[in-house]
Amino acid sequence: MAVTLRDIANKAGVSIATVSRILNNDATLSVNEKTRQRVLDTAERFNYTKHKRSQSNRTQKIAVVQWYSLTQELDDLYYMAIRMEIERSAQQRGLQTVPIYQNNMEDIPQDVTGIIAIGKFSDSQVEKFRLVTPNIVFVDYDSLAAGYDCLVPDFENAVRSVISEFCNEGINDIGMLAGTETTTDNETVPDLRRFYFESDLRQRGLYHPEFIFAGNYTSMSGYQVMKKAIADLGNRLPHGIFIANDPMAVGALKAVQEAKISIPNRLAMISFNDTALVKYVYPSMSAVHVATDEMAHSAVDMMIKRLQNPDNDPCKTVVGTHLIKRQTTR
């Protein structure tokens, strides 16, 4: 007769739900280690086969590939937060993680059974990942067309919410500090925020190409680009500025303050990502919040499903965002 969860629960002295969550490595379950081990030992004694399959994840090793170097990661808390939460969540689910920085392929162990890749990657880099393992999940990079699981923020609705907020405040002259970047093998990465920004403004009849300036996602770039916008546009400086990420927003804010431009009365500003950087500057920055924890947990879930069912079709998850208003909007 097959062993059931009820049999294990009765023997271990816990509920069926607790048994199920422990055997499925549920990281949200609050239970002491003694109880957890008692359930695992009971399942082992009963030779519970489903338990053995779920526990196979404990022997799996995955590489967590960050496209940034350690130094770059310190300047962009968005990617750091995603990496750290992926590693924490994966380890809680019984996976062994190997951190790889700056997309260094040579550092990826050949015995990994999966790769979670964070950031932007060229086609040739994706192919190199595939030569190591077909089990790949991309975070913040749309790889569905290439045949791999991926998670991306909802850039389209995020940008729409920013423009709608400015318009609701009576601001119709809206600019952007966009970002340009390249993969570690020097392929240019398009900024989807800029694409959706320009598209939405065109539909509203509010598009002014002279109000768009490009930087490289660093705080120094944000400072320099904002100073250029102020100098070039003078009194024509837009009354609303959307900034592609938080480091650029912090630099831009410094330039605006040096120019003694009133915030938000003369200039309203909204950033993207909502890391700690923009929460604790003064004035605190309104920002589109991206759920980095949710992205990380979903990436680990995707990897475990991929390891269990490697022949499944690839999936794309779009993670929702929401605008948090602080002191840089009216």
Characterise this structure.
With 330 residues, the protein is an alpha/beta fold. It folds into three domains: 5-57, 434 Repressor (Amino-terminal Domain) (Orthogonal Bundle); 59-152 and 292-317, Rossmann fold, CATH 3.40.50.2300; 155-291, Rossmann fold, CATH 3.40.50.2300. It has helices spanning 5-12, 16-23, 33-45, 49-55, 70-75, 77-92, 123-132, 155-168, 192-204, 219-233, 246-258, 276-279, 292-308; strands spanning 61-66, 96-100, 114-118, 136-139, 149-153, 174-179, 181-182, 188-189, 212-215, 240-243, 268-273, 286-290, 316-319, 321-324. It has a six-stranded parallel sheet with strand order 2-1-3-4-5-13, with helices on both faces. α12 (276-279) links the parallel β11 and β12. α1 (5-12) packs across α3 and α8 (155-168) packs across α9. It comes from Limosilactobacillus pontis. GO terms for molecular function: DNA binding. Residues 3-59 form the HTH lacI-type domain. Keywords: DNA-binding, Transcription, Transcription regulation.
